[in-house]
Design goal:
CATH superfamily: (Glycosyl)asparaginase
Strand content: 15-25%
Oligomer: single chain
Distance between the termini: 32 Å
Largest sheet: 8 strands, mixed
Structural class: alpha+beta
Radius of gyration: 18 Å
Order of helices and strands: HEHHEEHEHHEEEEHHHEEEE
Strand order of the largest sheet: 4-3-2-6-5-1-11-12
Helix content: 25-40%
Length: about 350
């Protein structure tokens, strides 16, 4: 049902492209003839201390199943001729609707026990971008970030203003209770008793979700969605909704990040990787390694990124024990990964 509703939202929403058409005005001139460009998509569901001995077989299977569902949802859009933007939204919505991740339903809770959600999306062909932060009543923040991009003059809207805009755009508000799960409430209580802040889950996983896609026209889009830190205070916002930090896309590179947001903001991680690939002439893989396993490690930051370039080359570097990830490459090969010793 959610898949049907998403298709209707994308195809019938005011001013939005349908799932089978692309706005060719936004396609780079050099690629307008590439209507049969190989498509690709890569997603993540968070990085951190994810070890086999800490993940029972049933939980591991649940994560792999949901990652497969999400990446397949996005890839189905691409195979049907849909845009990379639509594919990113389709994949992220699956993860926002799952309590396995720190985004949407199942998001971590702030000090007051409420969910505050952040998301962003960017399209590389024209650098269009939209973001929301600190929203509490929007079921799928990635959809609202997309609407900010397509139906406002702004890039980022926050808090009550973002939700006022959402209502004007026809979004239905949901009670904050929708996002809360028993697991997250227990986690918050444990951390409050210890007077600590956690980046995501009890075993130090970063549960932020993201997706990067390449469509048949060679257009790249990237998106990220999160609930932020457990026990966060004072309206804290991390890197996920910040363009260039947690999300970035241009005509040859797309990145979505997951990790310790304060460091990712200061290092402008997503943009830095794309900039290195563009200006240094190195491969996207080299650029990703230099930032994730070089600069971030030097700063003392944990996390990882996913990304791809205009040829559909996929990267998934991380400096933590594991990262929930999945991809479908230009040859149609699907992979899922969790642990650091799984080959790509």
């Amino acid at each position: 049902m959610r898949k049907i509703l998403l298709t209707l939202w994308l195809s019938l929403g005011p001013g939005l492209a349908s799932a089978t058409t692309v706005d060719t005005a936004a396609v780079p001139a050099a690629r307008k003839n590439f209507v049969n460009n190989p498509v690709a998509i890569v997603i993540h569901g968070g990085a951190g201390t994810i070890r086999r001995e800490k993940l029972d077989a049933a939980t591991e299977a649940a994560y792999r199943s949901k990652l497969t569902e999400a990446v397949t949802a996005g890839h189905d859009v691409l195979k049907a001729g849909g845009s990379s933007r639509e594919a990113v939204i389709a994949a992220i919505v699956v993860m926002e609707d799952s309590d396995l991740f720190n985004a949407g339903h199942g998001a971590v809770l702030n000090h007051e026990g409420d969910a505050e959600l952040d998301a962003s999306i960017m399209v590389g062909s024209d650098l269009a971008a939209g973001a929301v932060a600190g929203v509490r009543h929007i079921r799928n923040p990635i959809m609202l970030a997309d609407r900010v991009m397509t139906h406002s003059r702004h890039v980022m809207l926050i808090g009550s203003g973002a939700e006022e805009f959402a209502v004007e755009q026809g979004f239905e508000k949901v009670p904050n209770e929708y996002f809360k799960t028993e697991r997250r409430q227990e986690q918050l209580q444990r951390l409050k008793e210890k007077d600590q802040v956690s980046l995501s889950e009890a075993d130090d996983k970063f549960g932020t979700v993201g997706a990067v896609a390449l469509d048949i026209h060679g257009v790249i889009a990237a998106g990220t969605s999160t609930g932020g830190m457990t026990n966060k205070r004072y309206g804290r916002v991390g890197d996920s909704p910040i363009i260039a930090a947690g999300t970035y896309a241009d005509d040859n590179c797309g990145i979505s990040a997951t990790g310790h947001g304060e460091y990712f903001i200061r290092a402008a991680v997503a943009h830095d990787i794309c900039a290195r690939a563009r200006y240094q002439g190195v491969s996207l893989a080299e650029a990703g390694e230099a930032v994730v396993n070089g600069r971030l490690v030097e700063m003392g930051a944990d996390g990882g990124v996913i990304g791809l370039n205009a040829e559909g080359n996929i990267i998934m570097p991380f400096n933590s024990a594991g990262m929930y990830r999945a991809s479908v490459d230009p040859d149609g090969k699907l992979m899922t990964g969790i642990f650091s010793d799984e080959g790509e």
